[in-house]
Design goal:
Immunoglobulin-like; TIM Barrel; 8-stranded parallel β-barrel; 13 helices; binds 2-acetamido-2-deoxy-beta-D-glucopyranose
Length: about 550
């Protein structure tokens, strides 16, 4: 994301009412049956990754020296669903990435005297790494360079990917990263270039099915959405309207979401932990995309809309905000809420600050403060895993190996018009309590009862709160159980507070993952009275 971004709805903000008395209990009303607004079956790779092209090898290592931390962290996710997280290789550096068949190392970053990354070159060993180091079966999306308007260069990278990846490994090409930030593209003149490129690349590589992911745009949708200004934005829907899919080359559409930013001081002011960990704000933000999601799915199918790059705070995150356990709660809520409004997959962005990205940004060098882990020692600190990684364990374990799991946000839920229920509309928890239900039609409980519930208590509790007692909420889930004394299993996402930054005190089902592999005994509880207590700044997965 870059700074010439227009003010978003939030900047009009809204004073936070600190006098709100926190709830201590919440009775879920039911009914227990599959809600009408439930999603189609969730994609097993709902929780996926986008890795900045220039930083890719820093994450994976190379064949003679693979990064074992990265390998293990990916394998843990695959082990829970049976299907690896997908990886999109892209970001701002993809628009200055070139192919060199004679390069004797996987990747070379050209860094100038000022320390600015000018461009990136990849060679044959790059694809060997992608093929061999990520878990077997990892699907890859490759972001090609559009900004140079050099078709030959884009085709060379595309050809190298087709030749270098395992058969079936490539799921899509993107042409350009955040093209709404350069060359003053309109939907029409973007499409005039994008469409023939997608056709010519398909023909050159004997690709006979739709293989392209449209969009990869950065700007948030203007609201209201059906105005001339909103329709003039470059995005998936306007590009489709301009004929991007006239030659049947579009498989998916991607748009990027960054709810907060430190690209400039004005936006840095609102990029706080308190704002981040608030369901009302998450839902209002993602709701901006609902009209586009609906339009894309109508034209291209149920699984066609993806958030192909996202994180919490653009321009590489913020220390003490996006590297905390609060980010873990934000990530969990964002992933599930997006799934509940029919986003098929979300690719959390990993990498580092780029000197040329914004002259007013807070971060310079090292790795990003929003990464789920740092694969190597860097300017910002040593190799480490962050609390937010454990949220992807929560998500993948919720999905399990089911291919029939459907989600609905059952508290605070959504209005009939699809937008979220907010404090003003009756969410007494002020965006602090969130519940998602999951129904699995392949199980005997079918559409009558959920097979799982995710309970989130986003109320702020800081580990640095001295001796203050930790509040908690009792969720009464009896209305979702076949009988009030049904025995359920509970696994928890826990940390000493929303402000902690260490993986060695962040527990998923009792285990920590600071070394990439589980440490400690697995902990789960059984409950037989329909009451599940969840501490402030905590979450629980209930398995029926
Ligand atoms: C996860 O790993 C365990 C232990 O190796 C194995 O038994 C199980 O089948 C794996 N699960 C999946 C879904 O791959
Ligand atoms: C592989 O990575 C190691 C460790 O970073 C490095 O020393 C080595 O030069 C790399 N090999 C290649 C071919 O890039
Ligand atoms: C990368 O940038 C440097 C410095 O501007 C330039 O000399 C070099 O030719 C560029 N590399 C490629 C492959 O364009
Ligand atoms: C376009 O890309 C090709 C292949 O990388 C390169 O040989 C050529 O010089 C580029 N053209 C321009 C105008 O930069
Ligand atoms: C697209 O059209 C706009 C408006 O006419 C123009 O400013 C811009 O330069 C064009 N971009 C390209 C790449 O042609
Ligand atoms: C794409 O192919 C068409 C037909 O062969 C050709 O006219 C056009 O110049 C090509 N476009 C590019 C960017 O290569
Ligand atoms: C595409 O098919 C043609 C004709 O069958 C073949 O000559 C060519 O090598 C193929 N290209 C690729 C990239 O597979
Ligand atoms: C692409 O679609 C356009 C518009 O329908 C059509 O004129 C053109 O012939 C198609 N190109 C190819 C290569 O099929
Ligand atoms: C969460 O955000 C909403 C919308 O900005 C606000 O009304 C509400 O008070 C916030 N909740 C808390 C606990 O600050
Ligand atoms: C601090 O502790 C008090 C007393 O238990 C609690 O009400 C409050 O929510 C806590 N605040 C934070 C941010 O941890
Ligand atoms: C909790 O910690 C965060 C990060 O250190 C801080 O921004 C926030 O103000 C703290 N909240 C309270 C109520 O102390
Ligand atoms: C967690 O790691 C930090 C930093 O390495 C260390 O200071 C702390 O003692 C560790 N805590 C536990 C509970 O292992």
């Amino acid at each position: 994301m870059n700074p010439k971004f227009v003010a978003r709805l939030w900047s009009l903000s809204i004073l936070i009412d600190l006098s709100l008395a926190a709830l201590t209990s919440l009775t879920l009303q039911g009914p227990a049956s599959l809600p009408v607004d439930a999603s189609p079956p969730l994609h097993p790779s709902l929780a996926s990754f986008s890795i900045e092209t220039a930083f890719f090898i820093s994450y994976t290592g190379n064949l003679s020296s693979p990064n074992l931390l990265t390998k293990n962290l990916f394998e843990n996710l695959k082990n829970r669903t049976g299907v690896p997280a997908e990886v999109r290789i892209g970001g701002i550096t993809a628009d200055s990435t070139y192919w060199d068949a004679s390069l004797d190392t996987p990747l070379f970053n050209f860094i100038d005297d000022q320390g600015a990354l000018q461009n990136t070159t990849i060679g044959p060993q790059f694809w060997d790494v992608v093929r061999e180091i990520l878990p077997e079966g990892t699907k890859i999306t490759v972001n090609l360079d559009l900004q140079d308007l050099n078709f030959t260069g884009a085709l060379e990278v595309a050809t190298s990917a087709v030749e270098g990846l395992a058969p079936g490994q490539l799921v899509a090409f993107e042409i350009g990263n955040e093209p709404d930030h350069y060359l003053s593209f309109t939907p029409e003149n973007y499409t005039e270039i994008w469409r023939p490129w997608s056709v010519n690349i398909s023909e050159a590589l004997n690709i006979t099915k739709p293989m392209f992911q449209l969009g990869a745009t950065a700007e948030d949708p203007l609201w209201p959405y059906n105005t001339p200004a909103a329709n003039a934005q470059l995005d998936c829907v306007s590009a489709l309207a301009a004929g991007a899919n006239d030659n049947n080359t579009v498989r998916y559409c991607s748009e990027h979401t960054y709810q907060y930013s430190v690209c400039d001081p004005a936006r840095a002011q609102v990029a706080t932990l308190t704002n981040l960990v608030n369901h009302t704000r998450v839902a209002q933000y993602l709701d901006l995309w609902q009209p586009r999601i609906n339009a894309v799915r109508e034209q291209l199918g149920d699984d066609a809309f993806v958030i192909g790059e996202y994180n919490s705070v653009s321009c590489s995150g913020r220390n003490n905000v996006s590297n905390t356990f609060g980010q873990a709660l934000w990530l969990l809520d964002t992933t599930f809420y997006a799934a509940s409004i029919n986003v098929s997959r979300l690719y959390i962005h990993q990498g580092g600050p780029l000197a040329l990205q914004s002259s007013t940004q807070l971060n310079h060098g090292g790795f990003s403060f929003y990464d789920l882990w740092w694969p190597v020692d860097n300017l910002n600190g040593p190799t480490q895993v962050f609390p937010s990684y454990s949220s992807y364990l929560f998500v993948t374990e919720t999905l399990g190996t089911s291919t029939n799991l459907r989600i609905s946000n059952i508290f605070p839920g959504r209005q009939e018009n699809g937008s979220s229920i907010t404090t003003a509309l009756g969410d007494d928890s002020a965006g602090q309590l969130v519940v998602y239900g999951f129904w699995d039609e392949s199980l005997p409980s079918g559409t009558d009862f959920p097979s799982k519930l995710a309970l989130l208590n986003l109320q702020a509790f800081n580990a640095t709160n001295g001796t203050g007692e930790r509040p908690s909420v009792n969720f009464d889930i009896s209305n979702y159980l076949p009988s009030p004394d049904t025995i359920v299993t509970v696994r928890r996402l826990q940390a000493p507070g929303a402000d902690v930054k260490a993986a060695n005190v962040t527990r998923w089902a009792g285990q920590t993952f600071e070394e990439g592999v589980p440490s400690g005994e697995l902990v789960q509880e059984t409950i037989d009275n329909g009451l599940v207590e969840v501490e402030a700044s905590g979450a629980a997965l209930v398995i029926l």
